[in-house]
Write a structure and sequence with these properties.
Its EC number is 1.1.1.100. About 45% of the residues lie in helices and about 15% in strands. The two termini are about 30 Å apart. The model has no long low-confidence stretch (mean pLDDT about 95). It has a single domain (about 10-190, about 230-255), classed as 3-Layer(aba) Sandwich (Rossmann fold), CATH 3.40.50. It is built from 8 helices and 7 strands; from the N terminus they run E-H-E-H-E-H-E-H-E-H-E-H-H-H-E. The protein has a 7-stranded parallel sheet, with helices on both faces.
């Protein structure tokens, strides 16, 4: 299938590693011009060079931190200077620190709300006029399977990502007539550094070896294994594609069947 992404311009947030980088690579493999962003300039530079060396799509990068109050302005400047416009926005924010609901204090909740919710919405709103004017746009927001089934010891993530569900769905109806879609993609247990960090935190909290924690999580997945970044990224690339033009307001779970809800 031709995804129609050749020459499309995509900004992928938090793309120095993990799921964000996987999505950027998948889009570039389809011929897109991707703009990587994150806090690690060295990693971004190396990843952009690797994408360009592959000779399929094109990659640029910008060092920026979602926690920075000037993040949105920096992204708008980079989109203008490096991409010359925007067709695809992938809202990816990484994950907040693990912890219980009772451990959420006001300062931590406010700070993560700014970086994971406020700046995502503000940046999207700033880029939407460009998409609407050209009659094509894709807004894809990476969240978590925790928006369906809250994940133990991830209270902050469950809370803040849930806020984006209502926003994304509302937005989808407002922009559909302009050729712009708004969807969410929800990773389950996809093997990234983040999963290793969470398994380590759970092992420490429960006083168990990390291998035992990992084995228990895999046992709960009908597919019988952790997912691969490339599998998740392929699903994301489709939602950003031209053939997916009639898919909007949805949440796609990529979790190997782990979620028990319908």
């Amino acid at each position: 299938m031709d995804l129609g992404l050749a020459g499309k311009r995509a900004l992928v947030l938090a793309s120095s590693r993990g799921l964000g980088l996987g999505i950027a690579r998948a889009l570039a493999d389809e011929g897109a011009h991707v703009l990587l962003c994150g806090r690690s300039g060295d990693k971004l530079k190396a990843n952009a060079e690797a994408i360009n060396a592959a000779g399929k799509g094109k990659a640029d990068w910008v060092e920026a931190d979602l926690a920075d109050a000037h993040f949105v302005d920096a992204m708008l400047k980079a989109v203008h200077e490096k991409l010359g416009g925007i067709d695809i926005l992938v809202n990816n924010t990484g994950g907040p620190t693990p912890g219980m609901a009772e451990e959420m204090d006001a300062e931590k909740l406010y700070n993560f709300f700014q970086s994971m919710v406020v700046r995502v919405i503000t940046l999207t709103n700033a880029l939407l006029p460009l998409m609407k004017t050209q009659g094509f746009g894709r807004v894809l927001t990476v969240a978590s399977s925790g928006v369906f089934e809250p994940i133990p010891n991830l209270a902050l993530s469950n809370t803040l990502r849930g806020a984006l569900v209502g926003w994304s769905k509302t937005l989808s109806a407002e922009v559909a007539s302009y050729g712009v879609t708004s969807n969410m993609i929800l990773p389950g247990r996809i093997h990234t550094d983040r999963i290793d960090e969470l398994d380590g935190a759970n092992a420490k909290r429960q006083g168990k070896p990390i291998e035992e924690i990992r084995a228990a999580s895999v046992k709960s997945i009908p597919a019988g294994r952790l997912g691969k970044v490339e599998e998740f990224a392929a699903a994301a690339a489709f939602l950003c594609s031209v053939p997916a033009s009639y898919v909007t307001g949805t949440m796609l779970r990529v979790d190997g069947g782990a979620s028990k809800s319908i």
